[in-house]
C-alpha cells in the first residue's frame, strides 16, 4: 500500500495524537506521514465554539480533505467529532481511553479562587452546581488550545481553569491541580478518547484495525448512541460517560440550579439507544431552555 497520508490540526495536542498514531502504524510496518490542516476552530478564538459551528468545526475541514482525496485519514479527539457524519467516511479505530476526568488546575490557595475559566457550558453548569462550597466563584469564558488556556492561567487572568486531563497527559504536562469526580463532572461524550477516521477502503481499514480497543469502542459507542437520541449539542450542559458498561448521563440547566440524570448498566448500542430515548423525554425541557437561551436552531 502507498504511504498513508494522515491529516491533523496544527495544535500541539493534535500533533501529539497524530504522532502517537504514526508510531503505532510504524510498529505494525505500515508507512504513514502527517500533513497539517488549519481549521476554522483553530483560527477563530474570540467567539464561543457554539457561535462558529460547534465542536464540529475542528473536524469538518479534515473530513472534506479526506473526501477530496488530499489525505487518506485523520486523527481526532473523538469528543470533537459531531454526531452527523458524511457518507463515505468511517471510524477505522478507537484507541484505548486515556484518563477521562476533567482537571481543575489552579495556582493559588483554594480559598483564594474567585474566577474559574472555561467556555464549556457543561463545565460552567457543573461548577455552579457542585462547587457551591466555593460560593465566591465566578465562571469566566476562556477559549483556545491547551497551551493558550494554561498561559492565561499563569498570566493571572484566572485563578483556576478546567480542562480535560487527557490533553495534559498526551502533552506530557504536569500541572498543579485535582481530578474532578466523574459522578459530578460527568465528562463530555467520548472525552479522553482518540479516534481515527478514514475513507472507506479495505486497505485503510486493515491498516488501522490493530489500533482499535474493543472495550473503549463499545463504551464510546454507547455514549454516542445516547447522545444521538438525546439530541442536545455542545450548547447543552450535558455529560455522558460510560466505563465498562456503567453509564451516567446528565443534563443541567445553564445556571446549574436544576438537573436530570440517568444511570445504569448498558450492554449494547441498541440498549443505549433505548435509554437515550427515555432520557430525552426526561431532559427535554432543560435542553429546550438551553437552546432557546443560546439562540440556536437544531
Ligand atoms: N474541547 C476541545 C478538546 N477536545 C478534546 C480535548 C481533550 C482531549 C480529549 O478529551 O480527548 C479538548 C480540550 C479540553 O476539553 O480541555
Automatic annotation (TrEMBL):
The keyword Ligase does not apply. InterPro entries: HemC, Porphobilin_deaminase_N, Porphobilinogen_deaminase_C, Porphobilinogen_deaminase_C_sf. Keywords: Porphyrin biosynthesis, Transferase. Its EC number is 2.5.1.61. GO terms for biological process: protoporphyrinogen IX biosynthetic process. Residues 222-279 form the Porphobilinogen deaminase C-terminal domain. It holds the Pfam family Porphobil_deam. It catalyses: 4 porphobilinogen + H2O = hydroxymethylbilane + 4 NH4(+). Binds 1 dipyrromethane group covalently. Residues 4-203 form the Porphobilinogen deaminase N-terminal domain. The keyword Transferase applies. One of its GO terms (molecular function) is hydroxymethylbilane synthase activity. The modification S-(dipyrrolylmethanemethyl)cysteine is found at residue 234. GO terms for cellular component: cytoplasm. Its cofactor is dipyrromethane. The porphobilinogen subunits are added to the dipyrromethane group. NCBIfam families: hemC. Tetrapolymerization of the monopyrrole PBG into the hydroxymethylbilane pre-uroporphyrinogen in several discrete steps. Belongs to the HMBS family. This is Probable porphobilinogen deaminase. The lineage of its organism: Archaea, Methanobacteriati, Methanobacteriota, Stenosarchaea group, Methanomicrobia.
